[in-house]
Structure formats: structure tokens, C-alpha cells
Amino acid sequence: MAVLVVADHSGGTLADGTARTITAALELDATVDVLVAGEHAQSVAEQAAALNGVNRVRICEDAAYAHQLAEPMATLILSIIDEYSAVMAPGSTQGRDVLPRVAAVLDVAQLSEITRVIDKNTFERPIYAGNVMATVACDESTQVITVRTTAFEPAASGQSALIEAVPAPETPVAARFVEESVVRSERPELGSAKVVISGGRGVGSAEGFKLLEKVADELNAAIGASRAAVDAGYVPNDYQVGQTGKAVAPDLYIAVGISGAIQHWAGMKDSKVVVAINRDEDCPMIQTADYALVADLFDALPELEEGLAQLKAQ
Amino acid sequence: MKILVTVKRAVDYTVRVRPLTDGSGVDIANAKMSMNPFDEIALEQAVQLKEAGVADEIVAVSIGNSGSQDVLRSALAFGADRALLVQTDAVLEPVAVSRILAKITADEAPQLVLMGKQAIDDDASQTPQMLAARMGWAQGTFACGLTMGDAEVTVVREVDGGTQTLALPLPAVVSVDLRLNEPRYLKLPDIMKAKRKPLEVQPLEEMGVDVGTKTRITHYAEPPERKPGVRVQSVSELIDRLVNEAKVL
Ligand SMILES: Cc1cc2nc3c(=O)[nH]c(=O)nc-3n(C[C@H](O)[C@H](O)[C@H](O)COP(=O)(O)OP(=O)(O)OC[C@H]3O[C@@H](n4cnc5c(N)ncnc54)[C@H](O)[C@@H]3O)c2cc1C
Ligand SMILES: Nc1ncnc2c1ncn2[C@@H]1O[C@H](COP(=O)(O)O)[C@@H](O)[C@H]1O
């Protein structure tokens, strides 16, 4: 049988996490279909059809999916689930919202945020804030899986798979959309950026984050934050990296004024190179980073910005 | 209006959990246990609704071993009116927990079920959505804002990219995120008062719920270890090493 990947998209753009989920799905099965649901979703469907390895794209266009809410999305997935042995979605807030509803109706256990496909019935996923990696055997009639997207490369594009329409089933009970407040950033996405610079409580204010922005400009980096920085209102909530925020795995992660609590490490420990800038030489971030600079961040950041600018000029 | 709040006993968030050396489990026999932090936030929300006169009864439910009585006592000290422990020594998958909770929810008939968005041991983030699906109710996950109306609850959700506001017809399930509120500190008089509140213990075997799944953890391992790092003395040394040694710039 085949694997169904539920596409994540917003503003007419297919999320990078979907391309990564397709890579995970292809490790599970050679036949991978993608489901794209939305009010106007043709262009997203075309982006999905272009991803190498996709067998076909199934599109469902209806006002009911304008915001891809959990109740209609789960009903739609369930209407075609019989054709699949597994359903996968990125472990984004979207995938995490929808897939457990599907699993509950099928009465099967779900696997959250897998980091590896070992074989057809065996997967790996982090538990206890990533301090333990669990090998999980899943022999359910239908496998329901969300994917830690940073653990898989995105599928490349170049082909053009068939796009077929799926009828929209009735959804009995559903939430009513009221409004959303989504900030679109010019910077690369946190989950797929090659470089991430994150600030913590030590940054001290929203104003302080401007220093990080200037360094991020030099590096074409995404900006992240610790929970403390988000709670204090320095930056929006979706900047939070960690056990209960986003997982990132860039080539370079620069933690500025972050102490390195277990919950923060959980979200960035798979980064290739970790740099810590902190004035407390005993804090876990300094102890564990690949490159640790014990310094006041308000001195170090302007110097770093200048040094990087010089490097670029060379 | 009745609110059901689920509370799970989990390893305290300050504990760094390690796998057992033979990979057969995790080394938590002597670890400090606490209420899952997100469930404290759910309870705090319920208590605030009661203080505001919106809710009149709060029922706290936990599924776990006899140690879970402690977290239920804390829930009672927070302000829950009564507590129910479904007692089992088995470690259950979220789908099995949702089967049990669906039965309790059907019996108790609350207007709102408040739950944590995620248990910090299994990091699953599934049970609330599963319960909502089983009940055929709408869900509001990852809530950072909540307003009760007569027939609807309005929930502000933390989503990738920002926030989203939904109105859910009641009854409904809401899972809460960190920024919904700041749970209160428990005061001694409340802890004393909680001792006299009703806490019912029901053995899982007597519920007639099948908790089997075809999913199981076969091995527990350490995550890959990082190489020891180096201390750099200056920003210029840092840049130099990132360019020439790490080759990431
Ligand atoms: C259930 C739960 C879930 C959580 N989930 C997350 C999560 O997903 N992500 C997350 O990040 N946290 C999470 N946390 C919170 C986590 O436990 C820590 O409290 C948090 O990460 C601390 O943030 P911080 O490092 O910015 O702040 P602090 O721990 O206060 O550290 C601030 C650091 O800044 C340094 N500093 C101060 N001034 C300067 C200066 N001028 N120059 C240089 N350095 C300076 C200090 O030395 C210190 O090390 C969670 C907690 C719980 C209970
Ligand atoms: N054994 C349990 N007892 C009580 N509540 C639970 C239990 N397991 C999960 N929950 C609830 O479901 C939420 C999400 O858990 P999980 O799906 O395991 O991440 C938790 O925050 C709890 O509110």
C-alpha cells in the first residue's frame, strides 16, 4: 500500500516541512501521495506535485479547509484513509493538531515526531526532552506518524506528478475560525535556516534583539529565542526554540544570553555547531557549546556584526 | 458548569532523564515526580473560571499508579472540588489514555475538558485531540487565551507563524500552552483543606476498557554525544574558528 502525506501550507506556499516529510515517507514506502486541502489550493498542489518521488497529489478545495482546522481536516483524511497503510504529517502545530484525531478514530496509537525510519515497522523518536531516544515498534493497521522535520532533508523538486481532486466530506462538528495574527518574516524559516541566532533573558528587551537582528542580517540567519525571552515579550511566541517550541537543526546555532536549560537544549541539540555567548562561564550553554565565548553580549554582538561584515567584504 | 481537568504525574522538569544501561527502560526509579507543568496551567485556568463564577465544579482526573494520588491532592489544593484516580501500574499510550478519558467524560458530562498540550515525559501531544475526536467535539489546542461564552468557548492558539483565534461550540476540549497563565503557589491552608476533599480511586481493571495497542517501545538509548567544546578568548578568534575549523561561515 501507499503512504499519504498531509501537506502543510499557508499563504499559497507549501511549507518546507512537507518536502522533508516526503523524504521520511519515501523511506517507509515507494508510493507516496500528498493531500493538499485548502480553499484555493491549486498552486500549493502544483508545488507538491513538483517534489521528486511524489506519486500523485490529491487536492480538495473547499471553504471548509480555508484554515485547515483539525475537525474538517481529520474528516477529510479519514474519508480516503482506507487506501493507505500510513499517514504522515510534519510535526508542525498543524500536523500535531490534526493527526491525533485521525489516530483516535482509527483507534490506533500515533507516533509523534519521528527522527528516523529504521524499517517498515520500526521508528526512532525522542522522549523526555530529547534526553532519551526511543526505538518504537508500530504494528498498527494504519500507521499515524508526525515527523521531526529537521531530521530529514527536503525532497528536491523537478518532476510533475498527477493532480487529482478528492470530494469534500461533511464535517459534523467544527470550531469556527475567528481571526489570526500571522507575521510573515523576510528571514529564512526557523526550521530550515542554515544559521540560527537565538536570544534569551540576557538580551533584556525587544530593543536588545535589534543587536541580534543585525548579526542575523550578516549571516542570512533566522532568529529564535528561549522561553524566557518570549514570556518576557521581547519576541513573538513562534520564535521559541525548545521542547515545547520549535526544533531546529541548523549548521550553526548561536545562543546569546541563554543559560541552556534542558528544555532549550531539546530544541537545538541537533545543530551541527553550537556557539554560546554568555557572561556566566558556569552555565550549561557555555559548558556544552562547541565554541563558548564568555563575554557581555552587549559588547560581543556589535563586534561580531563588524567582524562578519569585514569577512563578507574580503 | 462543570470542568474536567486531566493531570498526569510525570518526572519533574528539572530532572535530566537517562536510559538504563541495558536499554530496557529509563532510570527514574528515584527521580522527583511532579504534576505535568502544562496540567498545572490547565488547573489554574479552571480555578480562575470558578473564581469568576463561570464554573461551579472542577473534577481532576489522573490515570497512573498509586503515586498519582499526590498530584491529585495538589489538584485539590489548587481548587479542584473532587478527584478521580484510575489506578494502573501500566505505562499507557495516549490512545489508551484517551479511551479511558472518553468513558469518564461521557459519565461526568462536563461542558469543558481542560488538558495540558503535552506531557513532558512522552512528549506526545496527542491525548487532548484524541479525546475530542472520540467525543465528537471540537478542539482548541495550544491555548494561550481563553474566554467562556454561553454556548461557545473562544480560544487563542499559539501556531507556527503567530496566533489563531477559534470559537468552539460547547462541550469542547482545550489543551493549554505555557503562556495561558502563571499557576499560583499552593498555600498551606489549601493543602490542609485538600486532605478532606473526596479522592476516588478506581482500579483500571474494573473499568472494562481495553488499553492494548500494537505499538511499543523496544529500546531506550542515549542521544548521540557531542564532542567537548572549546573556550574562545575573543570575537575575532570565534570568527576565525568558525571559518577555518568548523567551516560554517
Ligand atoms: C514545561 C516547560 C517547558 C519549557 N519549554 C521550553 C522551551 O521550549 N524552550 C525554552 O527555551 N525554555 C523552555 N522552558 C524554560 C526553561 O526551563 C528555562 O527556564 C528557559 O529556557 C530559560 O531561558 P533563558 O536561558 O533565556 O533564561 P535564564 O535561564 O534566565 O538565562 C539567562 C542567561 O543570560 C545570561 N546573561 C544575562 N545578561 C547577560 C549579558 N549582558 N551578556 C551575556 N550573558 C548574559 C545569564 O548569564 C544567563 O545564563 C520550559 C520550562 C518548562 C517548565
Ligand atoms: N495518564 C494520564 N493521566 C491524566 N492525564 C493525562 C494522562 N496522559 C495524558 N494526559 C493529559 O493529556 C495531556 C497531553 O499528554 P500527551 O498526549 O501524553 O502529551 C497531558 O498534559 C494531560 O493533561
From TrEMBL, chain A:
<feature type="binding site">
    <location>
        <position position="278"/>
    </location>
    <ligand>
        <name>FAD</name>
    </ligand>
</feature>
<dbReference type="InterPro" id="IPR014730">
    <property type="entry name" value="ETF_a/b_N"/>
</dbReference>
<protein>
    <recommendedName>
        <fullName>Electron transfer flavoprotein subunit alpha</fullName>
    </recommendedName>
</protein>
<comment type="function">
    <text>The electron transfer flavoprotein serves as a specific electron acceptor for other dehydrogenases. It transfers the electrons to the main respiratory chain via ETF-ubiquinone oxidoreductase (ETF dehydrogenase).</text>
</comment>
<dbReference type="Pfam" id="PF01012">
    <property type="entry name" value="ETF"/>
</dbReference>
<dbReference type="GO" id="GO:0033539">
    <property type="term" value="P:fatty acid beta-oxidation using acyl-CoA dehydrogenase"/>
</dbReference>
<feature type="binding site">
    <location>
        <begin position="226"/>
        <end position="227"/>
    </location>
    <ligand>
        <name>FAD</name>
    </ligand>
</feature>
<dbReference type="InterPro" id="IPR033947">
    <property type="entry name" value="ETF_alpha_N"/>
</dbReference>
<dbReference type="InterPro" id="IPR001308">
    <property type="entry name" value="ETF_a/FixB"/>
</dbReference>
<dbReference type="InterPro" id="IPR018206">
    <property type="entry name" value="ETF_asu_C_CS"/>
</dbReference>
<feature type="binding site">
    <location>
        <begin position="257"/>
        <end position="264"/>
    </location>
    <ligand>
        <name>FAD</name>
    </ligand>
</feature>
<dbReference type="GO" id="GO:0050660">
    <property type="term" value="F:flavin adenine dinucleotide binding"/>
</dbReference>
<keyword id="KW-0274">FAD</keyword>
<dbReference type="InterPro" id="IPR014729">
    <property type="entry name" value="Rossmann-like_a/b/a_fold"/>
</dbReference>
<keyword id="KW-0285">Flavoprotein</keyword>
<keyword id="KW-0249">Electron transport</keyword>
<dbReference type="InterPro" id="IPR014731">
    <property type="entry name" value="ETF_asu_C"/>
</dbReference>
<dbReference type="InterPro" id="IPR029035">
    <property type="entry name" value="DHS-like_NAD/FAD-binding_dom"/>
</dbReference>
<dbReference type="GO" id="GO:0009055">
    <property type="term" value="F:electron transfer activity"/>
</dbReference>
<keyword id="KW-0813">Transport</keyword>
<dbReference type="Pfam" id="PF00766">
    <property type="entry name" value="ETF_alpha"/>
</dbReference>
<feature type="binding site">
    <location>
        <begin position="240"/>
        <end position="244"/>
    </location>
    <ligand>
        <name>FAD</name>
    </ligand>
</feature>
UniProtKB/TrEMBL annotation, chain B:
<dbReference type="Pfam" id="PF01012">
    <property type="entry name" value="ETF"/>
</dbReference>
<dbReference type="InterPro" id="IPR033948">
    <property type="entry name" value="ETF_beta_N"/>
</dbReference>
<keyword id="KW-0249">Electron transport</keyword>
<comment type="similarity">
    <text>Belongs to the ETF beta-subunit/FixA family.</text>
</comment>
<dbReference type="InterPro" id="IPR014729">
    <property type="entry name" value="Rossmann-like_a/b/a_fold"/>
</dbReference>
<dbReference type="InterPro" id="IPR012255">
    <property type="entry name" value="ETF_b"/>
</dbReference>
<dbReference type="GO" id="GO:0046395">
    <property type="term" value="P:carboxylic acid catabolic process"/>
</dbReference>
<dbReference type="GO" id="GO:0009055">
    <property type="term" value="F:electron transfer activity"/>
</dbReference>
<keyword id="KW-0813">Transport</keyword>
<dbReference type="InterPro" id="IPR014730">
    <property type="entry name" value="ETF_a/b_N"/>
</dbReference>
<protein>
    <recommendedName>
        <fullName>Electron transfer flavoprotein subunit beta</fullName>
    </recommendedName>
</protein>
<feature type="domain" description="Electron transfer flavoprotein alpha/beta-subunit N-terminal">
    <location>
        <begin position="23"/>
        <end position="211"/>
    </location>
</feature>
<comment type="subunit">
    <text>Heterodimer of an alpha and a beta subunit.</text>
</comment>
<dbReference type="InterPro" id="IPR000049">
    <property type="entry name" value="ET-Flavoprotein_bsu_CS"/>
</dbReference>
<comment type="function">
    <text>The electron transfer flavoprotein serves as a specific electron acceptor for other dehydrogenases. It transfers the electrons to the main respiratory chain via ETF-ubiquinone oxidoreductase (ETF dehydrogenase).</text>
</comment>
